[in-house]
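To assess whether ligand presence alters the predicted conformation, the chain was also submitted together with 5-O-phosphono-D-xylulose. Input:
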Amino acid sequence: MPLVAGIDSSTQSCKIVIRDLESGALVREGRASHPNGTEVNPQAWWNALNEAIKQAGGIDDVSAISIGGQQHGMVVLDTDGKVIRDALLWNDTRSAGQANEIVAKFGAQGIADLTGSLPVASFTATKLLWLKQNEPENAAKVAAVCLPHDWLTWRLAGYGPLGESALGPDLSALTTDASDASGTGYFNPKTGEYVNEVLEFVLGHLPVLPKIIEPNKAAHTKGALAIGAGAGDNAAAAFGVLAKAGDVVVSLGTSGTVFAVSKTATNDSTGTIAGFASVSSDFLPLVCTLNAARVLDSMCSMLGVDHNELGALALQAEPGADGVVLVPYFEGERTPNLPDAKAGLHGLTLKNNTRANIARAAIEGMLCGLAAGLEALAAAGVKTERVILVGGAAANPAVQQIAAEVFGAPITVPAPGEYVANGAARQAASILLGSAPDWKIETLAQIPTTGQGPALAQYKKYANAYLA
Ligand SMILES: Nc1ncnc2c1ncn2[C@@H]1O[C@H](COP(=O)(O)OP(=O)(O)O)[C@@H](O)[C@H]1O
Ligand SMILES: O=C(CO)[C@@H](O)[C@H](O)COP(=O)(O)O
């Protein structure tokens, strides 16, 4: 039976799954780490991708492959196909001022109407404006701009820097898909076209941009291997869990994201909801925070425990952690747009200052930032019948249980797996089959709603003070 592969080139690592085309059964997998930091040489992603493929036993027997990846990262290429400078990632906040300049130029509603979203520092457009203003010699050299998954797809197809690749630096062979393009800040998800006036404003000239490929078409063929368009990681996760109306997906990776597949486009000029496209060319209204799984990593090292112990400690405390609140803005924050904010531990007394309360406050704080996202989606008309929890921190049973209390919604935890990579594999399968297969998804846990606990209300008291 033919095999298909899907890749998740995410912030912290690269993962590959190889699946049976018909049943979707996992056949082999591999992973490799990415370097830390918000500025990364794309070569590190290419090395990790090759290491992950090697760990998975290679892809010689695979018929189709697609790459999902972290969104927004700015990869700039010169005319020889060389990377001009390290990529600035989605969680690099240096271009916050440039985001404001774009909003001032086009107006908040104007830019939201043109691109579906109000740009914040994460968006590629703001990074290009930062480049033009701070490294004009680099900006002048830019012949093409692409996203992390676009660049990896191009490399996998055999293109790359002059002298270092079989097919050479053909920039016109760069491809992408609507879901990832919709995170650039210069793409209109409603028309499916790039918005040149924004691009010209931020870079000063029009570079080559990746061609938009439909989800069930091959972007390239390499011998017998079909290479798909790929996708932004959140859109791929929605596709990987087969999200349908009433499902809201919450992903707890480096970023925290809340999103749903919708037939209706959004154009939120407040900037809370990003109006992205889905893999299937519907829409993917999405709220993203900068502080998710790494909040727990950081609290684990502060308390000297591992993730299981952090979870066990948290479950010893009562909902609301006896008034202890962590506002987790360790990396600044994106939603709300507070790029320079710092985290704060609030409400401590000599009595409630326990390891259990602090562990619980860490999990509640991470989730409360996302509960505000759920509320925003609800206000935009997105129905939440259940929350599907994915991403690294979703594996933690305490996180799953506390999510039901914080969100006040039933939680479904799919069987442990790489759902971004699975979504990419499902897209690859759709190239061979003409449409995406309905692979069965096993459920690990279903946690009924317990109603909303006290955590969110007390969190808002402290978090709202940051907005004053
Ligand atoms: N059991 C767990 N509990 C909490 N966090 C976890 C657990 N297992 C992994 N993580 C965290 O999940 C993160 C990796 O998740 P992942 O979704 O792969 O991130 P990304 O997509 O941003 O690279 C790491 O920060 C890791 O420490
Ligand atoms: O910026 C966004 C979404 O807009 C992030 O969701 C990135 O796409 C990174 O995802 P992870 O690597 O944290 O999963």
